[in-house]
Amino acid sequence: MKTLFQKETFDELVNRINQLTSNTQRLWGKMNVDQMLAHCSATVEAATGEKDYPQAFIGKLIGRFFKTSFLNEVPLKRNGPTNPDFKISNPQSFGNEKEKLLGLIQSFYEGGEAKCTTNPHSFFGKLSKEEWARLMYKHVDHHLQQFGA
To answer: What is the rounded distance in angstroms from the CA atom of residue 62 to the CA atom of residue 102?
Structure first.
């Protein structure tokens, strides 16, 4: 399974993000490309602890039962539910958001396990550092696929 701790996986994501332009159109969903970049940045900030999003009540009840299905090799489903804290509805600056996401991914990769938060995930609860790295790759990969990158 790919994780954001691996050099080849980091390089792959950087190359795919760099394929995006401000005119890249989504294949599904509601976000435009700049909103998607901002959304992915918010999740990486949660993984590093730069932003703390408390675990939602529903996550406390059922999150642990879904964790393994999100951390396996099966791709994420299209149009899945999103924590309201991660919804980006306002227009964003494509260039700024692309640069921000690239910087956050680089910081996560270079920081390794020491860069991972000990905060619980907003839905799944406690994650190991390896699970955070796997989830970050899988989530960004999902959204890059959403935009054909």
So the answer is: 32
